[in-house]
Amino acid sequence: MRNLKLLRAQECQAAQALGTPQGFTLRLDRRTLLIGTEYGIVELDPRTQEVIKEIPLTTEGFLPEDGSGCIVGIEDLPDQESACVAIATGDVILCNLNTSQMECVGSVDSGLSVMSWSPDQELVVLATGQQTLILMTRDFEPIAEREIHQNDFGEGKFITVGWGKKETQFHGSEGKQAARTKPEVLPALSWDDHKPRITWRGDGQYFAVSAVCPETGARKIRVWSRELILHTTSEPVPGLEQALAWKPSGSLIASTQDKANKHDVVFFEKNGLLHGEFTLPFQKGQTKVKELLWNSDSTILAVWLEELNGENNPQPKTYVQLWTTGNYHWYLKQNLTFDSSEGSHHIVSLMWDQETPYRLHILCQQWLYLCYDWQWSIDRSTGGGASDLANVAVIDGDKVLLTAFRHAVVPPPLCTYQLQLPCPVNQVAFCAEPARSGDLAVLDANHRISIYRSGGCTNTKMDSTVKIGAVGGLNASVPVPWLEKSYRIDIVDDKNGRNPLWLRLLTWLQDDLLLAVSQGHVPGHTVIHHLKLTSVAEEECVDISSHLTMAGDVISLCYNAKTKVVALQLSDGQIMKYHWGAETPTVNPWQSSSGSAVRFPSPCMQIALAVLCGEETVFGLTDRCRFFINDTEIASNVTSFAIHDEFLLLTTHLHTCQCVSLKNMSLKALQSGLGTTSAPNSETLRRIERGCRIVTIVPQDTKLVLQVPRGNLETIHHRALVLAQVRKWLDGLQFKEAFECMRKLRINLNLIYDHNPKVFLGNVETFVKQIDLVNSINLFLTELKEEDFTKTMYPPLDPAIACEPHGSDRKKVDLICDSMRAAMENIGASKYCLSILTCHVKKSPPELETALQRIRELREQAPSTVGSISAEEALKYMLYLVNVNELYDHSLGTYDFDLVIMVAEKSQKDPKEYLPFLNNLKKMESNYQRYSIDKYLKRYPKALYHLSKCGPEHFSEFLNLVVDQNLYKEALKLYRPDSQEYKTVSYAYGEYLMQKHLPEQAGLIFFRCEAFEKALDAFQVSGNWQQALCTAAELCYPEDKLANLARSMAGRFTEKRKYADAAILLEQYAKDYEEAILLLLEGTVWDEALRLIYKYNRSDILETNFKPSLLEAQKNQLMFLETQKASFSRHRKRLSVVRELKQQAQNDLLDFEAPNFLESDLFSDASSMVTASDTSSKYTHSNSRISARSSKNRRKAERKKHSLKEGSPLEDVALLEVLGEIVRIIDGLKGEMHSLLKYLVLFGYDGQAQELQQAFDEILQLTEHSILEIWSPGLQQFPANTILGPNSTANSISAAYSQQKALDPIAQDVEFFIPPKFNKNIQWKLNLLQ
Fold first, then answer.
1. Count of Cβ atoms closer than 10 Å to residue 518 Cβ
2. Measured between alpha carbons, how far is 44 from 368 in angstroms, rounded to an integer?
3. DSSP classification of residue 171
4. Which H or E element spans position 1242?
5. Distance between CA atoms of 742 and 730, rounded to whole angstroms?
6. pLDDT of 1188
7. Could you give the CA distance from residue 254 to residue 221 in angstroms, rounded to a whole number?
């Protein structure tokens, strides 16, 4: 789908030098030409158009002075700074180009006809006048000499075992006699010069020689090895001509053949067999092929032709045609016609540049030199509207193959339309105006511009120059292009048309205005032409005006139809802005926003204009895959790019297609986005086939057309383009287009709602009317999920434009289903019956009973319209959405047996099973029937309700159901509180609560149902002595029994260390205040004990019990504090040692076992530890055995998990646990310590109080100051491992699970890594003691 675009045409005609040119070669190091004449060698500089040096060969006698000499070969040897010249008389001369010294390095008496050097210039082959080949080294030392004409086939002769012989093959109507006839070999054509032709393979391992056989007079091709050993000989080919060229890639040898009715370029394999051909666009006998030449990358074949002299053709023309191939079809891309009426137009020689693959050098008579630089280009329409057909024009000789990709993706060489021109085409240009983007201007080799308009006629009324290709045949109604007019271009320069391609870079700006450029009269200058299409005197011609000459060679011209800006690129990469709309056109340097001139670091072969961050920006791509935006290199692996709407699309060497949004995108962000590999599932990145390049993008659509290297086309729908187009459709309320695209391209339909919930809910009826089809609506409903797909699967490229979620507390699916159901019921409930059922089923929880109710209504009412849905059809559809057994249960729950039977018939149930069951239900009383159904369906609350209405005879069954299903709360609501049934259920409820170890709640239930004995027992178990005494009052307990009850409960409280409650019971109900005081002293409840002592005037107890208890408590506290302080200090020191050991072990493992130690990056300050498996395997095996034992042993293993034993795997965690417990215990003593200090001071024990206060203060200070050391801030920072996600791979997921397993012990005990907090609100110190 690519054409050859002429970037630059250099024309040079030097001052007349001595002699006429006979051939030339290039000095690549100096970019000059070495031209051989009949008198010597001339070096010409095309840039200055001056002759630099002349080396005459007549002075030494190598060439005669009468001008009859002939140079048969010339080769530049840059490493020797010399040129090797072969003369027809047989001398081989080495000329030093610096000193002009000449040396005859060899001579052949019989003369020379050809000299050919190998591509690496290590060998040279000479063809002599005696029809021999001489192979020499670069130092001109002979290697071998062989006869050209060998009778042997060569060392590559085919080996056959008799299979597939010609005699055994089928010969059709000719019969077996055809196998015995030998092909007639015709002698070479009359115009053949009978000289040998030599061509080398690109790697220099073989070369081919075409020579005329002296016996038959016909040409034959032989392939020789690098050692001058015959490899193969070609099969006899009648009409084989002199041209010969071996493809540098080594696959084929090109030559020409004159056939009975056509003139072909044929290809040979290395084994001498024919392998393909194509036909030249000339009549038989009209032309002769002088030479064939491949360019260095084997993509272009140049054919040099010359018309044969004749009576009807006194002035024959010369042609140079450039052919390329794609998808097994040969295209004629460029045709250069040289008129022989001027002597300077006769071509002497031509050759491809070895360094620049697409540069062609042509040397003509009268010292005219032409140099052409081509580059690949795709000519496509640039309209952005839906009317643009996404046309791509392909030049193929005198035809333009036009493909409209909006209609169909037609693989080349097929096309949608074929435009037939009178002569070969060189350039095409689409109109840049958006409304006329399908119009095409065609510039042919006769300098005529043909204007084809898009549309205006159909295939029923066609232009004779247009043929329809692959668009569906004559029955397809598609707009067909038609030829409006053809305009003649008159050459306006003073060079008499010496350059057949004097106009280049044709660009169609407006309906009647085109731009083109040509080479200026001064070297290194360019002329910009305005081509105005006019009609004068009934003759269409092009008015060439506004000649603007500028310095520099323009190699690219780009036009932005939106901004009306024309950008020019010079050969040095500088970008210029051309003001074409002014009265006097001007050219100024292109400036960036910073005010600096824009210059590409390297010249770009493709440029484009787009707006980036509000600034007109130039995009460029070099032939070395470097991609620039203004003067900044963005990427270096881009193979093609295109700008579509607000997107930039690129293909890369990584075989990916990236689609980047230019909207609100800065240059730095774009550079970083293209410089890094995006996530594999990102919508901006897509994998493509190796070597794919962008052909075109269909506007207002999602199709991206790519071409693979072999020539086939591939159409992809890039996710970014698809989502952008879907969002545009949704914003424009074009739900049908968006839905069809999403369904076809498998985009989740939730995006229709998630893109803009408010807009969707406000236009639900519009959505239903546009979609219309019930199946499509059902598809949308069944695909709904609670997930917001704009945040997970399809996040917007620009987060700033993300829509806010719909402000509703309801679930997304329920909200959509209710809105859709309401809209469909409003439009037509009967039409959308199935969709309404889908809405009910899709809700959470599913409204199956409501859906079944609608089916029952359908069964009861007659069909209102022809297309109405019957109950049978609705039920059948429901079975696709819901499991039939589940639907059977819900139908049974409607208590409608006809509906149940209807559903059961659709299921796999056996009628022998469900019919007796249903018949048995029908015989029951209504409430008991519903109870039985609900119990069968395990809807126990409903069953309980219906059973309660069946009368007292079923109460025992009711109570059993309550007890079995624990429905006590529901049962109590079904009876009055004063009923016996209520009390019976309450009594059972209390028993249940007692079993659940909720004695206090059980006591309340027993008390309410007047079961006071049970209530008293329950309150005693719960420890609620107040309610227990109240219940005893209800039971009318006497004082002695009440005292015994109080003493019993006091004993229980004493066991539980609830001394205050026990003292109240003894003092108030048992009347034993002395025992109460002793219990308070035992529990260190000093305030209450002192109150009772003074209440009962027992001051003797102060001396006998109170003060001794104070002193004993002071001693116990001192001993306890000392013990805790020592333990705290010991554990803190051990923790420091353990952390140092673990850190050292971790570092050692990282140094020596880094590849195997995947958990190394997981250790923070809190977990500077080695996993249990790395430290000691015995713990792992022990724990694994314990985990398989009983629950008692498992609890025991849990207690042993944090062992303080030195060297245990989680010793640091155990130390943290113990230290935290000590801190919490010390902090909890503040209240008790304050009370003890207060009464020590009250009774004059100041020394003891001061000692205790000082000891407690010391341990508090120790713990507070150690908090940051033990619990450092980094302890709570655990790594958050994202196991799954768009960037995850199989290896990363596996590693993450292994890492998570290593962290499991730490994650379970995270509370140990949180530092304990101190209660600062308790003022425990006494200022009296400070």
1. 24
2. 11
3. -
4. helix 1230-1242
5. 11
6. 41
7. 11
Whole-angstrom CA distances from 1131 to 75, 361, 741, 1126 are 91, 90, 69, 9
Show the tokens assigned to 769.
Answer: 């009317």
Taking residue 558's Cβ as centre, other Cβ atoms within 10 Å add up to 20
- Here the tokens at position 144 are 């071998």
Q: Which residue has the tokens 């724990």?
A: 1183
Distance between CA 767 and CA 678 in Å, rounded? 35
Output the six-digit token pair for 1293: 């997921």
Give the per-residue SS3 of 1088-1130. HHHHHHHHCCCCHHHHHHHHHHHHHHHHHHHHHHHHHHHHHHH
In three-state secondary structure terms, 923 is coil
Task: Tell me the backbone φ, ψ of residue 517, rounded to 5 degrees.
Answer: -130, 160
Three-class SS of residue 663? coil
**Beta-strand runs (E) in 645-688:** 647-652, 656-661, 685-687
216 phi/psi in degrees, rounded to 5: -95, -20
Compute the C-alpha angle 301/126/268, nearest 5°: 35
* One-letter amino acid of 103: E
- Cα–Cα distance for residue pair 653/637, rounded to 1 Å: 5
What angle is formed at CA 379 by the lines to CA 374 and CA 383, rounded to 5 degrees?
Answer: 145
Tokens 């695209």 belong to 741
- Using left for φ > 0, alpha for ψ between -120 and 50, and beta otherwise, residue 1054 falls in alpha
Q: Is 163 exposed, middle or buried (0-12, 13-18, 19+ CB in 10 A)?
A: exposed
- Which residue is it, tokens 């010609």? 166
Q: Which band of pLDDT confidence, cut at 50, 70 and 90, is reported for residue 808? A: low
| Beta-carbon count within 10 A of 1145 CB | 15
Angle at 328 between CA 326 and CA 331, to 5 degrees: 50
368-377/713-716 β-pairing: unpaired
What's the rounded Cα separation, in Å, for the pair 1318 and 1315? 10
How many C-beta atoms lie closer than 10 Å to residue 1312's C-beta?
22
Query: CA quadruple 1320, 1322, 1324, 1330: dihedral positive or negative?
Result: positive
**Helices (H) then strands (E): counts for the chain:** 36, 56
Provide the 3-class DSSP secondary structure of residue 833: helix
1204 pLDDT exceeds 60?
Answer: yes
* Angle, vertex CA 1287, rays to CA 1283 and CA 1288, nearest 5: 40
CB atoms within 10 A of CB 687: 10
The residue length of the chain stands at 1330
Place of tokens 């149902």: 1009
Residue-wise pLDDT tens digits, 467-517 = 888 765 445 567 788 898 888 887 765 455 678 888 999 999 988 889 999
End-to-end CA gap in the chain: 99
Q: Rounded mean pLDDT of 1032-1045?
A: 86
**Which H or E run contains 837?**
helix 833-842
Which residues, other chains included, contact 1230 with Cβ-Cβ below 8 Å and sequence gap of 6+?
A: 1319, 1322, 1324
User: If pLDDT is split at 50, 70 and 90, which confidence band does 1293 have?
Assistant: low
Other C-beta atoms closer than 10 Å to the C-beta of 1026 total: 10
Residue 496 phi, psi dihedral angles, 5° rounding = 60, 35
For residues 32 and 97, what is the distance between their CA atoms, to the nearest angstrom? 12
Q: Are 320 and 347 in contact (CB under 8 A)?
A: yes
In 1144-1228, at which residue ranges do the beta strands (DSSP E only) sit?
Answer: none
Q: Is the dihedral of CA 1153, 1159, 1160, 1163 positive or negative?
A: negative
CB-based contacts of 186, cutoff 8 Å, min separation 6: 218, 238, 239
**Residues 486/492/494/500 CA torsion (nearest 10 deg):** -30
Tens digit of each residue's pLDDT (9 = 90 or more) over 137-179: 999 999 999 999 988 888 877 666 556 565 666 666 666 666 6
d(CA 131, CA 148): 6
